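Here we describe the complex-level prediction in full. Unlike the single-chain runs in Section 2.1, the two entities below were treated as one system.
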Amino acid sequence: MPEKKILMGNHAVSYGVMLSRAEVIAAYPITPQTQIVEELSEICASGRLKAKFIKVESEHSAMACCIGASAAGARSFTATSAQGLALMHELLHWAGLGRFPVVLANVNRAMAPGWSIWTEQTDSLSQRDTGWIQLYCETNQEVLDSVILAFKIAERVSLPVMIVFDAFILSHTYEPVEIPDQDMIDRFLPAYNPADKLDIGSPTAFGALTSPEHNMELRYKIQQAMNESLGVIEEEGRNYAEMTGRRYGIVEEFMTEGADTAVVAVGSMVSTCRAAVMEMRRAGKKIGLVRLRCFRPFPYEVIRKSLKGVKRAVVFDRNLSPGCGGIFASEISSALSTVENAPKVNGVIIGLGGRDITAENIMEGIELAEKEGDGREIWVGLKKYNHGK
Amino acid sequence: MSAKGFASYCLDEMKKTDSKIDFKDIGEFPSSAISSFDMRWNRTGSWRYLRPIYVNRTPPCNNGCPSNEDIEGWIRLVSEGRYGEALGLIRIENPFPSICGRVCFHPCERGCNRKNSGGAVSINALERFVADVNGIPRPPEPFFGRNGVRAAVVGSGPAGMSCAFHLARLGFSVTIFEKRSYTGGVLRYGIPSHRLPKKIIDGEFDCLRDMGVEIVTGSDAAINDLKKDFFRVFVAIGAGESKRLGVEGDDSEGVISGLEFLESVYKGSVGENPGRVVVVGGGNTAVDAARTAVRLGAESVKILYRRSRVEMPAFEEEVREAEEEGVELHILAAPSGVVVEEGARKWLRCVRMELGEPDSSGRRKPVPVKDSEFTLECDLIISAIGEDVMRGDLPEEILFEKGSVRTGFDMRTSDPAIFSGGDMIDLPRTVVDAFASGKRAAIAIDCDRRGISFAEIGDRIKGSRNENVSMSKYVSYLGGRANHRATGLAADIQDIAGIERMNLNYFDERQRNPRGHVPLDKRLGRRNKDDRFVEVVLPLPEKTALKEAERCFHCGRCTECDNCFIFCPDVSIAPAQGGYGIDYGFCKGCGLCVKECPRGAMMMIEEPSEEDL
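The structure predicted for the assembly as a whole is:
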């Protein structure tokens, strides 16, 4: 019988990494991520995981270490958050375009300023063009399972995978988490043994100068791999479900049957949305929920299918691309642009900087969208100041 | 390869490689930008504009040593347990570590980069360890065999014995002429046994004899006569004329000089209990005299010194030990007269001093305090306020300048056949400086014999400091090999490996291992009278010596620690015989190796131009 533990989201990551038998871990501490690598350092020190744990002086170096280790054929992991992720930016490209299957856990935290440690999705979303697969988690159990899945997916398609989850709401909150058996995970995730790796016996250059003659084809191959990964994510999700009974895919539909309005949400607020949808259903409203788990590659086909038939999609964005609006809303709009009689997309900006999101907020968002949804984004939870009027 | 040549080489190689790449469709492409072939033709070292090199900087200890010992080198040999080689390395430059390890003022330790990480390495104690652990000194091999040329050395003090040793090693047939009936000069009669046991001096003279040096004691040979029989004459008869107190009554009975007192004790002509003793002066002779008086059972021993304690030229440790032994220190006090009464009751009249403006020596000048006279009743007054060089019966050709024999950098006096050194010339009056002067004269005499101009080769054989010469460099210049150490890949550069050259992140703090001392009651003969003149400072036990040697940072010298090898991101550094080799074909000149070298044994230099290469 698999063991059950009460784990915070951060430690769920650590356990996932341990079970995945990562070989190189390089990280720099940053709240709210630090406990991930803190626990891993102890796991390594105690010998439960035989990995090289490298202390580095910056996130930039952490990712550089992971890339180097990965190039040498080692399974590599790092974790970070917000400013740390931003500091890695250059090397995120390097890992993505170099096709190194590094796994990174990013705890969503608002970018500063104003200085913040609370959750917001903008940090990971602003890395969307770096060539990383991005998976957003809803629960601590999913966090643990996703780490294992991430290695499997990454190594199959030779692309790095970023596991993303919310600061504090998941990272520091304890939930019961089932720890899969090591034997089972070993069967699911065999040792990493890439065809191309650094080999002093047969020296080749990695990431060297590539002329216009060849580079475009390499980009095309990345796009192919990204597209292919959608199938791999689903397939490995099914395999994992066979072992554990827990299934994770690209997009999840919840109470969408016969719905006129679909709520689209990402991350831990999906659970809040579930509660709001259930309540509105009880009140007789034809409403459903579409949860987006995989943001890169963007699942155009699946989204189109999931939202087919609804009149309105209300997309909740805990992020902001200033001057544009919510990033998920923007991408979903583009996905639906080729669909005939496409549903109207309303973007709702909510919970920025870690502001709490309640079921009431969600319902308010839906109502506002229906009332004044003219295509501009709607802000929910924004304080209104009357200045004594 | 010229820059242009390199560019066309690259172009050719790229074309060759490109012609091999022939993808039929996208599926044949690699997953990312990984080269399909070996890319070592792409010599990325061409990007470099600065290059790292290995260098030997001068360790601060070596730089501080007037005898130019390779201290870093012999400490490394000690830490490897190669004691015989360590001794050999020292003796190339300084033949008498048994003596310097006991009485040297060890200026080497002043610059030690360990200073703030647990205290300077105890170099002086280690030097004595090296001498002691090797036992009775044995004669070293001459560098080039015997040359059959005779050289005379007048005076068997430190300068003379050093000159004789080096001349013998350079192949000369040497005769030492000593006026006294015993050898060693001031080492024997001026430094008491509790600091330098006589058997140490005997051992070194036995060794000199074994090297073929003839020693004539009780000699009254005239220097001008020696010139006839010997190719060159080295004169080092010291500064034997003690300065008088210069106060009223300073010629009274019971007023003697420090050296006179010490020599009388050595000869056994001073009886037990000299009574109440006042020593005037703050140098090592004063402290030696005071501690000797204590050992003779003096009722009381006072040292009178006109400046404050920090200005005392004597070794701090010696002053501390003297106080432990009961010597009273009266600082800021000077004699103003000696009063003798009928029946030989005697007083020293003294005056209190205070420190005024700095004088020419940079120390604050002591000036008498008005109406502060006091008297000390005493039985013996020892004046130890310095010595002058005696003109005596030196040949007239030897000219003096400001009280010292005038010599050039080559130690030659105004008589071209006569050289001089030690306390007679204008040098700091220390044992190690005397040893160094003897060496320099020996090299200059050898140059004379070979018809080499010492002045011309001076720059090539200079040690780290201008006033030093290096025997090892001189022997190399002559085509021989003096240094026992393997030659490394590093180039010698004229730069001191000061603290700013070090990467202190690689060194932890380790406390200096103190030297042991004979307990007070034993060394004062309270248990057994015969113990009174035992050597006070104990030898370092081997284990402690090894621990102390381990504290050395090895500043400016490669110890093959592998840091450069480990840190090189271009895998361009590899261990090689005698150090590491840098593959400049791939070294991009990032400088990480230099930055991470713990001890400043690397540096970045401007990429040499094609002409330079």
